[in-house]
Amino acid sequence: MALESRQLSLNTATVRERWNLAQAIEGCQRHGIGGISPWRDKVAELGLQESARRIRAAGLTVTGLCRGGLFPAPDAAGRQAAIDDNLRAVEEAAELGAACLVLVVGGLPAGSKDIAAARAMVQDGIAAILPAARAAGVPIAIEPLHPMYAADRACVNTIDQALDLCDALGAGVGVAVDVYHTWWDPNLERAIARAGAERILAFHICDWLVPTTDLLLDRGMPGDGVIDIPRIRGMVERAGFKGLHEVEIFSAGNWWKRDPDEVLAICTERHRTVC
Amino acid sequence: MALESRQLSLNTATVRERWNLAQAIEGCQRHGIGGISPWRDKVAELGLQESARRIRAAGLTVTGLCRGGLFPAPDAAGRQAAIDDNLRAVEEAAELGAACLVLVVGGLPAGSKDIAAARAMVQDGIAAILPAARAAGVPIAIEPLHPMYAADRACVNTIDQALDLCDALGAGVGVAVDVYHTWWDPNLERAIARAGAERILAFHICDWLVPTTDLLLDRGMPGDGVIDIPRIRGMVERAGFKGLHEVEIFSAGNWWKRDPDEVLAICTERHRTVC
């Protein structure tokens, strides 16, 4: 059964080079896209209340706020600064009515080779913001990033690892499942089943290109790469996930250069035909 | 306790742009390096018997032959061709007295998005060569590659996944543990302990650079990146591994351009001081 564009959500990173948040909201309306997941810099630019007002007026579901996290730091002051910033992000997510605050948890602190210590800092950081997140009704979505980002962006690299964190932290924490970060995982199906409906807070789509020419900014449009997106969507749906499918494409050399209206037209077409 | 250069092995990929195998053998002797792990193209260039003769005469341990694998293919003829080539690699490894034949197992066949099918092809391919490998006394080392190579080089991406294959295949198969491919794995310590002395057939070292500018050819000299090599060496040693430490650096922009004698001098110094 073909997917409806109302089931698609636009992560604003996909059009960030050429559209501000107001333009992205209008773009979603023009293309019949049902949801949006804004980045905090774009929200700040438009203003938090104005962003919330426009998104509500457009009838868009906020599938997430990107992003909190980045907890590890070389010293206690740095770690506290990260926690303070995450507390502000929780407030913003609440104001926007976001389904979750997405965490890119952070990698190794500068000068460190101790990934176990970085992982402990992540757990401590989430624990520190969790009471406020629960009080605000904002679920925290740990996004496991591909292992190629373990050093510099996120030392949580599999869904199982994220779920172990969720188990340790208790209610109010779940995972964001991104096909780009997880498609290779030999344990993917079991991990998604383990997560279950309550803990799958977001589902992100794009594609893995062959070859991939840049570790960060060479992600593909669904259908242009090797990820079997329908298979992974089937896994999250069997686990009970009923949320939107959020398209998030970092692509400095291709999609970021194009007319965002063309990008959204292709996103909705690919969502319908290959996702 | 500082490591001795006799405990170091040179994977010839490290100097492949500027040295043939005869030069690499002589280079190991000059630098007091105890082992070598040649690539098949370099062996073919020098001749199999001549390669074996020179390596023996130099008193070098052959820590592995690189490489077999690349089993998945779109059709049966392609898969059989891969098996036939791997059977030749087993013979070459036996002639060289290699401690193991290292497998880079292969990624998705052209046009496929079915990673489960590719993984089944890998298992079938290894099963097909295993009787000959056992008869020749050549252990087969599955090398899990970093998940960023899942599409195009190796769909076996964690030590645990490789060990599941070993369990299914029986005697004569183990793993090559490469710090570059595995350092991020939250389950690394348990997986190495699970492998045990009998199944850790090789231990490869290099480093993960931040930033990494190329997915394949931007590996670092030990000490220049973020991998805690002594910690991982401790894991394999606690598991009972007593083999050499094989340095393997793919580095088109840096180390491959330098004088190989300078590279080996730095390798032995870093091996002594940071590994």
From TrEMBL, chains A, B:
Ranges of residues in domain Xylose isomerase-like TIM barrel: 29-259
Domain of life per record: Bacteria
Which SUPFAM superfamilies does the protein's record reference?
A: Xylose isomerase-like
Isomerase recorded as keyword: yes
What keywords is this UniProt entry annotated with?
Answer: Isomerase
Q: Is Secreted a UniProt keyword of this protein?
A: no
Q: Which GO terms describe its molecular function?
A: isomerase activity
Question: Know the name of this protein?
Answer: Sugar phosphate isomerase/epimerase
Organism of origin is Stella humosa
